[in-house]
Structures are given as C-alpha cells and as structure tokens.
Amino acid sequence: MDAVNLPAPGSKTRIVVVGGGFAGLNFVSKLDTRAYQVVLLDRHNYHTFAPLLYQVATAGIEAPDVCGPLRKSFRGKQDFHFRMLEARGIDPDRRVIRTGAGTIRYDHLVLATGTRANFFGNANVAAHALPLKTVPDARRLRNHIFQTLEQVDMTDDPRERERLMTFVIVGGGPSGVELAGALSELRRHVLDRDYPDTPMGGLRFVLVEGSDQLLGGFSEKSSADARRNLEEMGVELRFGTLLSDYDGRTATLKDGSTIETATVIWGAGVTGEIIRGLGEGSVTKARYVIDDRLRVRAYDNVYALGDIAFLTNDSWPKGHPGVAQVAIQMGQRLARNFNALAKGEPTRPFVYFDKGNLAIIGRNRAVADLPKNVHLNGFPAWFIWAFVHIFYLIGWRNRLFTFLTWASNYVTYNRAVRLVLEPSLENQFDPERVGEIEE
Ligand SMILES: Cc1cc2nc3c(=O)[nH]c(=O)nc-3n(C[C@H](O)[C@H](O)[C@H](O)COP(=O)(O)OP(=O)(O)OC[C@H]3O[C@@H](n4cnc5c(N)ncnc54)[C@H](O)[C@@H]3O)c2cc1C
C-alpha cells in the first residue's frame, strides 16, 4: 500500500521516476503507458531548461520562458501520475521510496535527480556567493545585479563604487562564459543608457577559472575563440587559480590575490543529488554507477539517467559528460528498452551520439563544435545556437515568446526584463512601514 494517494497499478508494472529534468521528461514521454503505470516525482512542478538560466539572470528573458509545467507536458498521457514531492530515501528491499508525504511502492525505480551546486565545504562561499542552478537562483541573481547597479548610482564613495561595480564569475565552463558575455553586452548596450549619472565603463567582469583554458570539454579551437571573444568584450580572465574565500566584501583567490566585490557568481562545482538507501558500491563520486542498460550496480530494477549517472565505456573512459544531450538520449533509450520488454523484444545498450557542443558569448558571437571535427565561430555558430535552443525549449508558448523576445532584443539592443521584483530588504528597512494599530 502507498502512503501517498495514488491509483493502484492493477495488473500493470509501476515505474516510479524521480526527477522531471531532461532525462526524466524524455523517459516519460517515450514510455508506452499502455504497458506500464508511471509515477513522476519532482520537488518542483515544472521542468527547468537550465541552458537559458543565464538569460533569466541577465534580463534577457522571463523565468517562465525556461519552465515547462510537468502536468501540462503529459496531459492526456494514459496512467501517468505526477506528485510534487521530494524523494528522501529508498528502501530497495521493500521496494519503496520515502517522501515527505509518506512512502510510494515501485516495481522499477528510475533516478534522474541531476546535480546541485557544490561549494566544496566552504561555508563562507556558500553563504555569500550566488549559484546559478535553478530558476529561483536565476531570479535572485537578476534581482541582485540590478539592485547593486541601483546602489552604485547612489554611492559617492569611490572605493565602495568600485566594489559594487566589480562582478566576479567563478568557473570558465559554458555557463560562466555565457554569463560573462551576457553581462558585458548588458554594459555595452543597455546600462549606459539606463544610468546616465554613472559611467558604466567602470564596470568590471572578472572570470576566474582553475585550469588554463575556457570551456573544458570543447575543442581547443573553440576554447581559444571563446577566450579571444571575451577579451575583446572587456572581460578580465584569471586562469590557473580558484576562489578560496569570500566574505561578502572581499574575494580571496588561491594565488593569494584579493578582489573587492559585492558579487561572486558561483559556477565552479556541482555534486550529484543522491537519494540515500542504495548499497555503498552503487555510488561513486556522488553518482550512481550504471551499466550499459542504465541499471544501477547490484540492482535489477533501479536505473539512473543523466547527470546523476556514471557510465564508462571505451569511448568515455572517464564517464559521460554532464550535458543535456546525454540525459535526453539516456531517457529515450531506457523508455525504448522498457517498451521492447513489454513486447518480448530484446533490449539495446546505451550508445551516446555526440551531436557536439555549443556556447554563446554575445551578439553574433558563439562557438560550435559539430560532428566530423567541424568548428564554427561567430555568426554561423550563433545562429545554430539560437535555433537549437528554441527547438529544445519545452512547449510552443515558450518557443514563441523566447523567439519574439530575442528578435526584439536583437533589433532594439534592449533587455526586456531588467526588473528588481524581489528586492533584498537589507539597508532598506523603514520603521515607519510597520504602521500603528488604528484605534
Ligand atoms: C546554468 C546551467 C547551464 C547549462 N548549460 C548547458 C548547455 O548549454 N548545454 C548542455 O547540454 N547542458 C547544459 N547544462 C547542463 C544540463 O542542464 C544538464 O546536463 C541537464 O539538466 C541534466 O539533466 P538531468 O535530467 O540529469 O537533470 P536535471 O535537468 O537537473 O533535472 C533533475 C530534476 O530532478 C529534480 N530533483 C532532484 N532531486 C530530487 C529529489 N530528491 N526529489 C524530487 N525531485 C528531485 C529536480 O527538481 C530537477 O527537476 C547547464 C546546466 C546549468 C545549471
């Protein structure tokens, strides 16, 4: 019996999926629910299109444009049941998953929980740096950026002004590069016009990367192109060092240097969203170890997909990359295998088809590594990036709205959403607002 209210599966096999990200969504959409009952759990009631979060944070598009409501995505799908719940534990012997609302029984369990920001045990950095992993993170970052700019306009102390105008981005992967590029474009095309009393040329964007190159995992050519583009756009690049401390005022780097800043954006580390309960050998480096049928080691009815899964083979001896395409293809492969089993047909191993890598840096500036060693830079890469991202967004509404917003931003050099909707109340508390009891 389930403690959470759910219809009984009857004679069908019940598959419980935890996580409605790229992997979970694609698994459910390809699964033939004439043969299976499927229960999807997610702590949010929407799918997040993470590759465009940086645009939400830099006022390019609205938060709802990168969200797909999970119930709407599967409206009309037979024997599909969504519950907005956080999975907190697995009991593989009793075949149940524990949630805040009670237990749910499963025949097969699919874990697609992705990753969360990891501050590597640094409590100071965790308390003061701003991660970019979720929609609330992106909105918080946007509020912070535009509220900080408002503070700049009200400050006449040159040192404080400099501190407020310095933005540090930690991590030179795709999201760090995209964010640095977007902030630089914002300075060039929008802020000068919005803040006539403040010379916005004083804004500094510092990108800190631990290795000696940007976009690790991309080709050397794309990495060099990204570097050249960001340098042309005035982004300061610091290679071979990491952030070791940040107290909200001063960022200290591993090389001993310090940067006075009101903003540190954290894009340097993630860790797997592991749900406790499976045997020890099934997890390594906060990822579930899986075989080519995507089964978690030592279990024949538990599977892991996407960023949370660790799968090695001859082509990927260090594991598959944590990118959306891997998650999408894993979700689709596992669903096809379940559909094959229902028809008494053999299952197939997972083989990743690498379609390449894309990263946008700014207006008409992007890099693309495509199959057959084709590397593109500039407008062609930018055009492909825009097309692919519109195509993969969830739902026609999001595709249409994002396309129209981008088209308008492109033509007008504007950013539509530079609003501080949830201001931080720090330094803004007005005792008079408390009011008095009216007799
Ligand atoms: C800012 C940013 C930019 C990125 N840019 C790119 C890019 O340009 N190209 C690219 O290919 N990849 C990019 N990625 C990586 C890509 O987003 C991930 O590889 C992809 O999201 C992995 O899909 P997933 O389904 O494994 O996990 P996710 O998409 O992270 O989904 C996990 C889901 O599980 C849910 N969940 C987690 N734990 C629980 C729990 N205990 N109970 C219930 N629900 C839970 C979460 O709410 C979430 O909905 C980016 C990521 C970020 C953060």
UniProtKB/TrEMBL annotation:
<dbReference type="InterPro" id="IPR023753">
    <property type="entry name" value="FAD/NAD-binding_dom"/>
</dbReference>
<keyword id="KW-0285">Flavoprotein</keyword>
<dbReference type="GO" id="GO:0050136">
    <property type="term" value="F:NADH dehydrogenase (quinone) (non-electrogenic) activity"/>
</dbReference>
<feature type="transmembrane region" description="Helical">
    <location>
        <begin position="379"/>
        <end position="396"/>
    </location>
</feature>
<keyword id="KW-0560">Oxidoreductase</keyword>
<dbReference type="InterPro" id="IPR045024">
    <property type="entry name" value="NDH-2"/>
</dbReference>
<keyword id="KW-0472">Membrane</keyword>
<keyword id="KW-0274">FAD</keyword>
<dbReference type="Pfam" id="PF22366">
    <property type="entry name" value="NDH2_C"/>
</dbReference>
<keyword id="KW-1133">Transmembrane helix</keyword>
<keyword id="KW-0809">Transit peptide</keyword>
<keyword id="KW-0520">NAD</keyword>
<dbReference type="InterPro" id="IPR036188">
    <property type="entry name" value="FAD/NAD-bd_sf"/>
</dbReference>
<dbReference type="InterPro" id="IPR054585">
    <property type="entry name" value="NDH2-like_C"/>
</dbReference>
<protein>
    <recommendedName>
        <fullName>NADH:ubiquinone reductase (non-electrogenic)</fullName>
        <ecNumber>1.6.5.9</ecNumber>
    </recommendedName>
</protein>
<feature type="domain" description="FAD/NAD(P)-binding">
    <location>
        <begin position="14"/>
        <end position="331"/>
    </location>
</feature>
<keyword id="KW-0812">Transmembrane</keyword>
<dbReference type="Pfam" id="PF07992">
    <property type="entry name" value="Pyr_redox_2"/>
</dbReference>
<feature type="domain" description="External alternative NADH-ubiquinone oxidoreductase-like C-terminal">
    <location>
        <begin position="355"/>
        <end position="410"/>
    </location>
</feature>
<comment type="similarity">
    <text>Belongs to the NADH dehydrogenase family.</text>
</comment>
